[in-house]
Amino acid sequence: MSSRRIVITSGKGGVGKTTTTANLGAALAKRGKRVVLVDADIGLRNLDLVLGLEKRIVFDLVEVAEGRCQLRQALIKDKRFDALSILPAAQTREKDAITEEQFASIVEKAAEVADYVLIDCPAGIEAGFRNAVAGAAEAIVVTTPEVSAIRDADRVVGKLNDRGKPIRLIVNRLRQEMVRSGDMLSVEDVCEVLAVELIGIVPDDEEIIDTTNRGEPIVLDENSRLRPIYDKIVRRLEGEIVPFTNFDQPGFFGRLLDALKAG
Amino acid sequence: MIDFLKRLFGQTGSSATAKERLRLVLMTDHLELAPDMIDAMKRDLVDVISRYVEVDRDRIEVNFEQQDRALAMLANIPILSVNRPPVNRAGNGNGNGNGHGRAAEPAQAAAVAAAPNVSSPGAQAATDSIVTRRRRRRKKNQSIPAGAKPATAH
Ligand SMILES: Nc1ncnc2c1ncn2[C@@H]1O[C@H](COP(=O)(O)OP(=O)(O)OP(=O)(O)O)[C@@H](O)[C@H]1O
Ligand SMILES: [Mg+2]
Fold it and tell me: Which of A115, A122, A175, B114 could form a disulfide with A128 if both were Cys (CB 3.0 to 4.6 A apart)?
């Protein structure tokens, strides 16, 4: 069976692509999948840092593309998991240091030794985006429930549609209490506007900052609030039907509770 | 208490505004027309209509709206005068648009359609007389529009 090649993209910067890539990758590896994470953000690499692997980088993506090393030499194995490794981006090069064809062929190679290749896409819709997408067969679009992020996500959805890539949506940094008070777009609103299949809802949670500080993926923390959330996304990726908890639509009683608390 | 009720029924806040604004902006994004193309289209549209009726160029609104699965363009073009013979229009259709001096304009019952509204001759006559005055005033400081305003979304 051929492996899955998925780009994690958003258009707008800073909405959580790298965080999502790291945590989905770790969650998949925890389930026994062989996973390669590719950092496509040349010049602004961060995936290594989020996963706490920054000290172990020897070669990078561009060096692989230029034939200066083998792919397997550049892959950094995450020792906390059986089969998670990352291919770091070059930090001191430009986005156009690599072509779409080179990128696609590296991803293809990585896919030979993995069940999942997740590609952490840079922000924007230029060269870096085109490279990251060229390697992927499907896409996860990450957005936050804000107008500018959603508009950019919509642009990206259009471009992915043009390229015929199936798309799933993650709404990140949702603040339930704000949705209830009518101050934040609900997941339902976001899905309606973007018309893309939902695969995950991740609340805004400071836990992310803490785990990122330490370079620890969330699935390794048994007590994490977000751990079940990433687990569910991964199960949906695997084709399981996992119902969404209703926390984005609390209905009358949720609002009653909020109203009582506030007033 | 009102606040409490509003919170209870989920009607506070800006999310509804956000959704509506997004809906509109995405529709124009999907057109894949640059904003200046939309402006040019609007100008051309108005030029054509101006051959037959005099329109209020300052208050034209062009919006896009989703109707079923298709996109519709809705133009709201206030008509100032319907009785001018088309012959006069042809020559100065382009330059005669858009005057200054709108500040002094009295409230007017502008027709709201792309075609002259003949069903209410009374209102029309009133509008027309206002317009005639206005046109005379405008003739003095003949000004050529610098460019159409971008379409305003509600
Ligand atoms: N669910 C969340 N709750 C709280 N903070 C979050 C959440 N998701 C992401 N963040 C924070 O948002 C910031 C941006 O996240 P991240 O780096 O993953 O975004 P990105 O889309 O990869 O950014 P870039 O476009 O720069 O690559 C980080 O500080 C991260 O810790
Ligand atoms: Mg990133």
Answer: A122
Q: How far is the CA of A123 from the centre of ligand 2 (A)?
A: 7
The CATH number covering residue A47 comes to 3.40.50.300
- Calculate what percentage of chain A has a pLDDT beyond 90: 90
Of A193, A252, A256, the CB nearest to B22: A193
Q: Where are the beta strands (DSSP E) in A122-207?
A: 138-143, 167-174, 197-203
What does the pLDDT read at residue B131? 33
What's the token pair of residue A106?
């590296």
Counting the structural domains of chain A, the total is 1
pLDDT band at B61; cut points 50, 70, 90: confident
Residue A153 has pLDDT above 90, yes or no: yes
Q: Of A172, A202, A254, nearest to B8 (Cα)?
A: A254
Ligand 1 centroid–CA B51 distance in Å is: 56
Q: Locate A235 and state its tokens.
A: 């199960």
Instruction: Residue A130: give the domain boundaries.
Output: 4-262
Q: What ipTM does the predicted assembly reach?
A: 0.79
Q: What is the pLDDT of residue B116?
A: 34
For residue A149, give the chain B residue with the closest CA.
Answer: B22
Sequence ranges of the domains in chain B: 14-153
pTM for the predicted model, two decimal places: 0.74
**How many Å apart are CA A96 and CA A102, to the nearest integer?**
11
